[in-house]
């Protein structure tokens, strides 16, 4: 039985040259074809997440062709799907910018500001992790004071009934 590479469609003649993709029924002829397929799947997942973010941000049931064209225009200008999604999240959820009509026109204006916001957020998370590690590595101190009853002197309280 002849098998074809899922990515390049080349016929795989040698049984030893097959590469399976994570238990799925996809077969690849080489590592490059497998990586190419995995990259395409990752891009598809990021694009779908971006479309969901756009629909949620503009309160739309589905994404329009105009918005898809704007996404592709921004993608061709070098903004990845993940960066675009993060910028939209910053604009609508963090900064709470209200835009009347569904458009991605303002993304380029807020891109650098969103990048700085996420960098400071990442730095804060790293500081918290460092502090957690420092506290975990410190020896635990017992802050409980235990009384000692070994004193031989009489330490009972003496009350004079006439003073009460």
Describe this structure in words.
The chain is flat. It has 4 helices and 4 strands; from the N terminus they run E-E-E-E-H-H-H-H. The chain is mainly alpha-helical. The mean pLDDT is 81. A hairpin with a 6-residue loop joins strand 3 and strand 4.
Report strand order across the widest sheet.
1-2
Mean pLDDT reading: 81
Q: pLDDT below 50 for ≥5 consecutive residues: which ranges?
A: none
Report the radius of gyration as a whole number of Å.
32 Å
According to DSSP, the number of beta strands is 4
Instruction: Note the total helix count.
Output: 4
Order of helices and strands: EEEEHHHH
State the helical fraction.
40-55%
Strand pairing plus helix content: what structural class? mainly alpha
Question: Features of this protein?
Answer:
about 160 residues, mainly alpha, two-stranded antiparallel sheet, two-stranded antiparallel ribbon, 4 helices, about 50% helix, about 5% strand, flat
Note the topology.
Elements: E1 3-4, E2 11-12, E3 19-20, E4 27-28, H1 31-58, H2 65-76, H3 81-94, H4 107-137
Helix pairs in contact: 1-3, 3-4
Would you summarize the structure shown here?
The chain has 164 residues and is mainly alpha-helical.
């Amino acid at each position: 039985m002849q098998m074809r590479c899922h990515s390049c469609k080349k016929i795989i003649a040698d049984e030893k040259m097959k590469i399976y993709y994570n238990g799925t029924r996809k077969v690849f002829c080489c590592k490059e074809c497998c990586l190419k397929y995995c990259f395409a799947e990752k891009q598809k997942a990021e694009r779908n997440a971006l479309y969901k973010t756009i629909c949620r941000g503009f309160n739309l049931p589905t994404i329009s062709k105009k918005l898809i064209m704007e996404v592709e225009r921004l993608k061709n200008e070098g903004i990845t799907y993940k960066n675009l999604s993060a910028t939209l999240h910053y604009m609508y959820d963090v900064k709470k910018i209200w835009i009347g009509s569904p458009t991605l026109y303002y993304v380029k204006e807020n891109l650098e500001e969103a990048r700085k916001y996420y960098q400071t957020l990442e730095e804060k998370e790293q500081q918290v992790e460092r502090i957690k590690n420092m506290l975990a590595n410190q020896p635990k101190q017992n802050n409980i004071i235990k009384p000692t009853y070994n004193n031989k002197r009489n330490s009972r309280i003496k009350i004079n009934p006439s003073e009460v």
